[in-house]
Amino acid sequence: METVWTASIPKRVEDIDISLDGSRIIVAGSDMLGSVVFLDAADNKKQPEILPQAEGVTSVAFFGKGFVCGGDDGSVSLWKTVKMGSPTRKSIEHDDLVSSIAVSNGLLLSASYDKTIKLWTDAPHSQTTFNGHLNAVQHVRWVPKSDNEFVSCSTDGSSKLWDVRTARETQSLSSSEALYSCDISTHSSPLLALCGAGSFVRVYDLRKTDEVLFNHAVTSSRPNRVVRFSVDGESLAVGNDNGRLTIYHHNKVWEEKNQYHHQNSIRSIIWDPTRKGRLYTGSWDKNVSCHLIH
Protein backbone atom coordinates (compact mmCIF):
# COMPACT_ATOMS: atom_id res chain seq x y z
CA MET A 1 0.00 0.00 0.00
CA GLU A 2 1.31 3.44 -0.97
CA THR A 3 0.13 6.61 0.75
CA VAL A 4 -0.06 9.19 -2.04
CA TRP A 5 -0.84 12.24 0.09
CA THR A 6 -2.15 13.39 3.45
CA ALA A 7 -4.05 16.62 4.07
CA SER A 8 -4.50 18.22 7.49
CA ILE A 9 -8.01 19.33 8.51
CA PRO A 10 -8.84 21.86 11.30
CA LYS A 11 -11.27 19.47 13.02
CA ARG A 12 -11.51 15.78 13.82
CA VAL A 13 -12.69 14.05 10.65
CA GLU A 14 -16.07 12.38 11.10
CA ASP A 15 -16.98 11.55 7.49
CA ILE A 16 -15.78 11.94 3.90
CA ASP A 17 -17.30 11.57 0.44
CA ILE A 18 -16.02 11.84 -3.12
CA SER A 19 -17.68 13.38 -6.17
CA LEU A 20 -18.84 11.04 -8.94
CA ASP A 21 -16.06 12.25 -11.24
CA GLY A 22 -13.44 11.64 -8.53
CA SER A 23 -12.24 15.24 -8.55
CA ARG A 24 -13.30 16.53 -5.12
CA ILE A 25 -13.37 15.24 -1.56
CA ILE A 26 -15.85 16.66 0.96
CA VAL A 27 -14.99 16.33 4.65
CA ALA A 28 -17.18 16.59 7.74
CA GLY A 29 -15.26 17.97 10.70
CA SER A 30 -16.39 18.18 14.30
CA ASP A 31 -15.08 19.36 17.65
CA MET A 32 -16.97 21.82 19.80
CA LEU A 33 -17.91 23.46 16.49
CA GLY A 34 -17.92 21.97 13.01
CA SER A 35 -16.71 22.54 9.49
CA VAL A 36 -17.17 21.34 5.94
CA VAL A 37 -13.93 21.10 3.98
CA PHE A 38 -13.44 20.62 0.24
CA LEU A 39 -10.20 19.02 -1.03
CA ASP A 40 -8.93 18.67 -4.59
CA ALA A 41 -8.43 14.92 -5.04
CA ALA A 42 -5.84 15.39 -7.80
CA ASP A 43 -3.85 18.25 -6.26
CA ASN A 44 -3.43 17.94 -2.51
CA LYS A 45 -1.26 21.08 -2.45
CA LYS A 46 -4.22 23.21 -3.48
CA GLN A 47 -5.59 25.23 -0.55
CA PRO A 48 -8.63 23.52 1.02
CA GLU A 49 -11.96 25.35 0.98
CA ILE A 50 -13.34 25.56 4.54
CA LEU A 51 -16.94 26.32 5.44
CA PRO A 52 -17.26 26.79 9.26
CA GLN A 53 -20.44 25.53 10.96
CA ALA A 54 -22.05 26.50 14.25
CA GLU A 55 -22.63 22.85 15.22
CA GLY A 56 -20.58 19.69 14.85
CA VAL A 57 -20.84 18.09 11.40
CA THR A 58 -21.11 14.34 11.81
CA SER A 59 -21.89 13.13 8.28
CA VAL A 60 -21.64 14.51 4.75
CA ALA A 61 -22.32 13.56 1.13
CA PHE A 62 -22.43 15.14 -2.31
CA PHE A 63 -26.07 15.53 -3.38
CA GLY A 64 -26.88 16.59 -6.95
CA LYS A 65 -24.92 19.76 -7.71
CA GLY A 66 -24.59 20.50 -4.00
CA PHE A 67 -24.10 18.57 -0.79
CA VAL A 68 -25.86 17.58 2.41
CA CYS A 69 -24.67 17.45 6.04
CA GLY A 70 -25.87 15.76 9.19
CA GLY A 71 -25.30 17.57 12.48
CA ASP A 72 -24.83 16.65 16.11
CA ASP A 73 -27.97 18.72 16.81
CA GLY A 74 -30.10 16.26 14.80
CA SER A 75 -30.20 18.47 11.72
CA VAL A 76 -30.06 17.59 8.03
CA SER A 77 -28.84 20.58 6.00
CA LEU A 78 -28.88 20.89 2.22
CA TRP A 79 -26.76 23.14 0.00
CA LYS A 80 -28.03 23.19 -3.61
CA THR A 81 -24.61 24.28 -4.90
CA VAL A 82 -21.13 23.76 -3.45
CA LYS A 83 -20.45 27.51 -3.59
CA MET A 84 -23.20 28.60 -1.20
CA GLY A 85 -22.14 29.95 2.19
CA SER A 86 -25.40 29.07 3.96
CA PRO A 87 -27.61 26.02 3.48
CA THR A 88 -30.67 26.18 1.25
CA ARG A 89 -32.55 24.23 3.88
CA LYS A 90 -31.92 23.08 7.43
CA SER A 91 -34.36 20.67 9.04
CA ILE A 92 -34.14 19.35 12.58
CA GLU A 93 -36.35 16.27 12.69
CA HIS A 94 -34.07 13.81 14.47
CA ASP A 95 -34.03 13.88 18.28
CA ASP A 96 -30.32 13.08 18.47
CA LEU A 97 -27.09 13.18 16.48
CA VAL A 98 -27.25 12.26 12.77
CA SER A 99 -24.74 9.43 12.49
CA SER A 100 -24.86 8.61 8.79
CA ILE A 101 -26.09 9.93 5.44
CA ALA A 102 -26.50 8.06 2.14
CA VAL A 103 -27.63 9.42 -1.22
CA SER A 104 -28.88 7.81 -4.43
CA ASN A 105 -30.49 9.45 -7.49
CA GLY A 106 -32.07 12.38 -5.67
CA LEU A 107 -33.02 10.37 -2.58
CA LEU A 108 -31.38 10.86 0.80
CA LEU A 109 -31.28 8.68 3.91
CA SER A 110 -30.34 9.98 7.36
CA ALA A 111 -29.65 7.66 10.30
CA SER A 112 -29.59 8.82 13.90
CA TYR A 113 -28.81 7.94 17.47
CA ASP A 114 -32.56 8.47 18.06
CA LYS A 115 -33.00 4.89 16.67
CA THR A 116 -34.68 6.04 13.44
CA ILE A 117 -33.86 6.40 9.73
CA LYS A 118 -35.52 9.06 7.59
CA LEU A 119 -36.00 9.30 3.82
CA TRP A 120 -35.72 12.73 2.17
CA THR A 121 -35.86 14.34 -1.26
CA ASP A 122 -34.98 18.03 -1.66
CA ALA A 123 -38.29 18.92 0.05
CA PRO A 124 -38.08 20.75 3.41
CA HIS A 125 -39.39 17.78 5.40
CA SER A 126 -38.62 14.06 5.46
CA GLN A 127 -40.93 11.75 3.52
CA THR A 128 -40.78 8.54 5.57
CA THR A 129 -39.50 7.40 8.96
CA PHE A 130 -38.20 3.85 9.42
CA ASN A 131 -38.56 2.39 12.92
CA GLY A 132 -37.28 -0.96 14.10
CA HIS A 133 -33.87 -0.56 15.68
CA LEU A 134 -33.77 -0.66 19.48
CA ASN A 135 -30.66 1.48 19.89
CA ALA A 136 -28.62 4.08 18.02
CA VAL A 137 -28.49 3.57 14.26
CA GLN A 138 -24.83 3.86 13.33
CA HIS A 139 -24.74 3.49 9.57
CA VAL A 140 -26.96 3.34 6.51
CA ARG A 141 -26.13 2.39 2.90
CA TRP A 142 -28.18 2.11 -0.29
CA VAL A 143 -28.11 -1.21 -2.12
CA PRO A 144 -26.09 -0.44 -5.28
CA LYS A 145 -28.16 0.23 -8.42
CA SER A 146 -31.37 0.27 -6.40
CA ASP A 147 -33.47 3.16 -5.12
CA ASN A 148 -35.84 0.78 -3.34
CA GLU A 149 -33.59 -1.00 -0.83
CA PHE A 150 -31.05 0.00 1.77
CA VAL A 151 -29.23 -1.60 4.70
CA SER A 152 -28.66 -0.26 8.21
CA CYS A 153 -26.85 -1.36 11.36
CA SER A 154 -27.14 -0.44 15.02
CA THR A 155 -25.49 -0.77 18.40
CA ASP A 156 -28.45 -3.04 19.24
CA GLY A 157 -26.50 -5.71 17.30
CA SER A 158 -28.84 -5.88 14.33
CA SER A 159 -28.44 -5.16 10.64
CA LYS A 160 -31.61 -4.70 8.61
CA LEU A 161 -32.49 -4.64 4.92
CA TRP A 162 -35.35 -2.22 4.21
CA ASP A 163 -37.79 -1.70 1.33
CA VAL A 164 -38.55 1.97 0.69
CA ARG A 165 -41.84 1.16 -1.04
CA THR A 166 -43.33 -0.46 2.05
CA ALA A 167 -41.23 1.32 4.70
CA ARG A 168 -40.62 -2.07 6.29
CA GLU A 169 -37.64 -4.30 6.92
CA THR A 170 -37.40 -7.36 4.66
CA GLN A 171 -34.45 -9.06 6.36
CA SER A 172 -32.80 -8.80 9.76
CA LEU A 173 -29.51 -10.23 10.98
CA SER A 174 -28.56 -10.28 14.67
CA SER A 175 -25.16 -10.16 16.32
CA SER A 176 -24.18 -10.37 19.97
CA GLU A 177 -21.89 -7.35 19.49
CA ALA A 178 -22.73 -3.74 18.71
CA LEU A 179 -22.51 -2.97 14.98
CA TYR A 180 -20.89 0.27 13.77
CA SER A 181 -20.74 0.02 9.99
CA CYS A 182 -22.26 -1.86 7.07
CA ASP A 183 -21.80 -2.00 3.32
CA ILE A 184 -23.24 -3.91 0.37
CA SER A 185 -21.62 -5.10 -2.86
CA THR A 186 -23.68 -6.45 -5.75
CA HIS A 187 -20.82 -6.73 -8.24
CA SER A 188 -20.95 -10.53 -8.55
CA SER A 189 -23.29 -11.68 -5.79
CA PRO A 190 -25.14 -9.68 -3.11
CA LEU A 191 -22.68 -9.43 -0.21
CA LEU A 192 -23.18 -7.71 3.14
CA ALA A 193 -20.17 -6.61 5.21
CA LEU A 194 -20.47 -5.71 8.90
CA CYS A 195 -18.01 -4.57 11.53
CA GLY A 196 -18.21 -3.43 15.12
CA ALA A 197 -17.29 -4.10 18.73
CA GLY A 198 -14.99 -7.06 19.25
CA SER A 199 -12.74 -5.85 16.40
CA PHE A 200 -14.44 -8.15 13.89
CA VAL A 201 -15.40 -7.92 10.24
CA ARG A 202 -17.86 -10.38 8.67
CA VAL A 203 -19.14 -10.93 5.14
CA TYR A 204 -22.49 -12.58 4.41
CA ASP A 205 -24.32 -13.62 1.26
CA LEU A 206 -27.60 -11.70 1.42
CA ARG A 207 -29.40 -14.69 -0.11
CA LYS A 208 -28.50 -16.87 2.91
CA THR A 209 -27.49 -14.72 5.87
CA ASP A 210 -27.25 -17.68 8.22
CA GLU A 211 -23.93 -18.51 6.52
CA VAL A 212 -20.85 -16.39 7.25
CA LEU A 213 -18.60 -16.27 4.19
CA PHE A 214 -15.77 -14.49 5.99
CA ASN A 215 -15.14 -13.76 9.67
CA HIS A 216 -11.97 -12.13 10.95
CA ALA A 217 -11.28 -10.65 14.36
CA VAL A 218 -8.09 -9.25 15.82
CA THR A 219 -7.01 -8.99 19.43
CA SER A 220 -7.78 -5.39 20.27
CA SER A 221 -9.60 -3.44 22.92
CA ARG A 222 -10.86 -1.03 20.25
CA PRO A 223 -13.67 -1.80 17.79
CA ASN A 224 -13.64 -1.75 14.01
CA ARG A 225 -15.40 1.47 13.09
CA VAL A 226 -15.97 1.47 9.31
CA VAL A 227 -16.11 -1.05 6.46
CA ARG A 228 -16.27 -0.41 2.70
CA PHE A 229 -16.26 -2.63 -0.40
CA SER A 230 -14.28 -1.43 -3.40
CA VAL A 231 -16.27 -0.47 -6.49
CA ASP A 232 -15.50 -3.80 -8.18
CA GLY A 233 -16.28 -5.78 -5.01
CA GLU A 234 -12.85 -7.43 -5.02
CA SER A 235 -11.44 -5.62 -1.99
CA LEU A 236 -12.72 -4.73 1.46
CA ALA A 237 -11.31 -1.87 3.55
CA VAL A 238 -11.74 -1.81 7.34
CA GLY A 239 -10.78 1.04 9.68
CA ASN A 240 -10.66 0.73 13.47
CA ASP A 241 -10.46 2.94 16.54
CA ASN A 242 -6.72 2.27 16.92
CA GLY A 243 -6.20 4.02 13.58
CA ARG A 244 -5.47 0.81 11.68
CA LEU A 245 -6.60 0.48 8.05
CA THR A 246 -6.72 -3.13 6.83
CA ILE A 247 -7.34 -4.19 3.23
CA TYR A 248 -8.73 -7.63 2.43
CA HIS A 249 -8.67 -8.93 -1.14
CA HIS A 250 -10.95 -11.64 -2.52
CA ASN A 251 -9.33 -14.38 -4.60
CA LYS A 252 -11.60 -17.39 -3.97
CA VAL A 253 -11.23 -16.52 -0.26
CA TRP A 254 -10.83 -13.20 1.58
CA GLU A 255 -7.17 -12.59 2.47
CA GLU A 256 -5.52 -9.77 4.40
CA LYS A 257 -3.20 -7.83 2.08
CA ASN A 258 -2.20 -4.42 3.45
CA GLN A 259 -2.22 -2.26 6.56
CA TYR A 260 -1.76 1.45 7.25
CA HIS A 261 -1.95 3.38 10.53
CA HIS A 262 -3.47 6.76 11.37
CA GLN A 263 -2.67 8.24 14.78
CA ASN A 264 -6.29 8.03 15.92
CA SER A 265 -9.63 6.43 15.08
CA ILE A 266 -10.48 6.00 11.38
CA ARG A 267 -14.03 7.29 11.01
CA SER A 268 -14.62 7.09 7.27
CA ILE A 269 -13.38 5.31 4.13
CA ILE A 270 -14.33 6.02 0.52
CA TRP A 271 -13.09 4.29 -2.65
CA ASP A 272 -12.40 6.40 -5.74
CA PRO A 273 -15.10 5.58 -8.34
CA THR A 274 -12.79 6.52 -11.23
CA ARG A 275 -9.41 5.03 -10.24
CA LYS A 276 -9.10 1.33 -9.41
CA GLY A 277 -7.24 0.64 -6.18
CA ARG A 278 -7.37 4.21 -4.86
CA LEU A 279 -9.14 5.02 -1.59
CA TYR A 280 -9.33 7.80 0.99
CA THR A 281 -9.46 7.65 4.78
CA GLY A 282 -10.54 10.25 7.34
CA SER A 283 -9.45 10.11 10.96
CA TRP A 284 -9.79 11.76 14.33
CA ASP A 285 -6.08 12.62 13.95
CA LYS A 286 -7.42 15.50 11.78
CA ASN A 287 -6.00 14.03 8.57
CA VAL A 288 -7.45 12.80 5.28
CA SER A 289 -5.13 10.40 3.44
CA CYS A 290 -5.12 9.08 -0.12
CA HIS A 291 -3.87 5.50 -0.58
CA LEU A 292 -3.04 3.37 -3.61
CA ILE A 293 -3.46 -0.38 -3.27
CA HIS A 294 -1.03 -2.36 -5.41
TrEMBL record:
SMART domains: WD40 (SM00320)
InterPro entries for the chain: PEX7, WD40/YVTN_repeat-like_dom_sf, WD40_PAC1, WD40_repeat_dom_sf, WD40_rpt
Keywords: Cytoplasm, Peroxisome, Protein transport, Repeat, Transport, WD repeat
Major location (coarse): cytoplasm
Family annotation (Gene3D superfamilies): YVTN repeat-like/Quinoprotein amine dehydrogenase
Statement: the UniProt record of this protein carries the keyword Nucleus: no
Recorded superkingdom: Eukaryota
Subcellular location: Cytoplasm, Cytosol; Peroxisome matrix
Record's GO cellular component terms: cytosol; peroxisomal matrix
GO MF, any single term: peroxisome matrix targeting signal-2 binding
GO BP, sorted A to Z: protein import into peroxisome matrix
The WD repeat ranges on this chain: 91-120, 130-172
Stated family: Belongs to the WD repeat peroxin-7 family.
Protein name (Swiss-Prot/TrEMBL): Peroxin-7
Organism: Planoprotostelium fungivorum
